[in-house]
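From the methods appendix. Each design record in this collection lists the tokenized structure first, followed by the designed amino acid sequence. Records were kept in a plain field format so they could be parsed without special tools. The example shown here is representative of the layout used throughout.

RECORD:
FOLD TOKENS (191 positions):
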């Protein structure tokens, strides 16, 4: 998980014990043990003060989403927004999660609006994380259009996502690329 840019923002003022606790918690997250991650003190603390560590707050939102606890994920997104201004990259990721929550509720137009906000925000940066967010948003736009049976628009979004993923990942066998190919195949199958 050391390559995740969300984690490089950690404060240098933390003592070694809190950094070690955070490392253990994040290791659980990156091993896809979302339920264990959510039981850690690090994840619990994020609910009280998400603005103190937005990187871990965003990881916690993802863990909640993956663990199926959408209401807590939605509350944490709202708390993070209320906490005040966020760096551009964090703001883009918040839009992505807002869109995914709306998509899960079947609110396609609202989801699309959030994905487009994520796209517009992430395009202001050229770092790896921003480009991956851009690709994720394009893929989610494709999912919205596929769900609305607007297949041409879905294919266009998935192909844009694929082009970005191929520039972000040097390994063409990366799961993001494979999943995007699967999405493209699903659209063709649906037509």
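DESIGN:
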């Amino acid at each position: 998980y050391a390559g995740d840019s969300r984690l490089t923002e950690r404060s240098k003022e933390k003592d070694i014990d809190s950094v070690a606790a955070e490392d253990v918690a994040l290791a659980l997250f990156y091993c896809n043990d979302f339920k264990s991650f959510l039981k850690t003190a690090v994840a619990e603390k994020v609910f009280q003060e998400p603005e103190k560590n937005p990187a871990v707050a965003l990881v916690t939102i993802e863990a909640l989403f993956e663990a199926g606890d959408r209401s807590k994920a939605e509350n944490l997104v709202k708390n993070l927004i209320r906490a005040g201004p966020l760096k551009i990259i964090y703001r883009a990721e918040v839009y992505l999660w807002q869109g995914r929550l709306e998509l899960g509720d079947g609110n396609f137009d609202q989801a699309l609006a959030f994905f487009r906000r994520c796209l517009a925000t992430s395009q202001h940066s050229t770092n790896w994380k921003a480009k991956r967010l851009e690709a994720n948003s394009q893929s989610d736009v494709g999912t919205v259009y596929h769900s609305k049976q607007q297949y041409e628009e879905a294919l266009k979004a998935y192909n844009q996502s694929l082009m970005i993923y191929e520039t972000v990942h040097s390994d063409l066998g990366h799961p993001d690329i494979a999943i995007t190919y699967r999405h493209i195949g699903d659209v063709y199958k649906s037509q």
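APPENDIX NOTE: Residues 88 and 121 are 7 Å apart (CA to CA).
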